[in-house]
Amino acid sequence: MQSPAGRYYFREFLRSEYSEENMLFWMACEELKTEQQNPQIVEEKARLIYEDYISILSPKEVSLDSRVREIINRNMVDPSPYTFDEAQLQIYTLMHRDSYPRFLNSPIYKKLCVGEIRL
């Protein structure tokens, strides 16, 4: 997750598995954390993240348990750059335990390892 190129290829893999929204959500949360100074921008970005990834009406809804959804709903009353931390951790853990091991066995990763694809 540290390398932009690594994120790119992992995201491509997730897209092929129809779970790209997990990476997009994680990246949106990281971007929100850079907005420390302007509460209006934080509120707007938090609302967009909620609409795009948390709302049950969203086609890009990420899979979160009810406990985390309740935390987010409470946090949305007064959004901060850390509004989605619990959800971000849950999605990161999901990707780490589920998607990433499959990525390591994927053709994309194997091509990276033998130098057919450059980072």
Q: Could you give a quick summary of the protein structure above?
A:
The protein is mainly α. Helices cover 66% and strands 0% of the residues.
What is the SS-derived class? mainly alpha
Low-confidence stretches: none
How would a textbook summarize the main sheet?
Answer: none
Order of helices and strands: HHHHHH
Task: Determine the number of helices (DSSP H or I, runs of at least 4 residues).
Answer: 6
Overall shape: elongated
Number of strands: 0
How large is the radius of gyration? 16 Å
Name the features.
6 helices, elongated, mainly alpha
What does this structure look like?
By secondary structure, the chain is mainly α. The protein is built from six helices and no strands. The protein has helices at residues 4-16, 20-32, 39-54, 66-75, 85-104, 107-113. The radius of gyration is 16 Å and the shape is elongated. The model has no long low-confidence stretch (mean pLDDT 93).
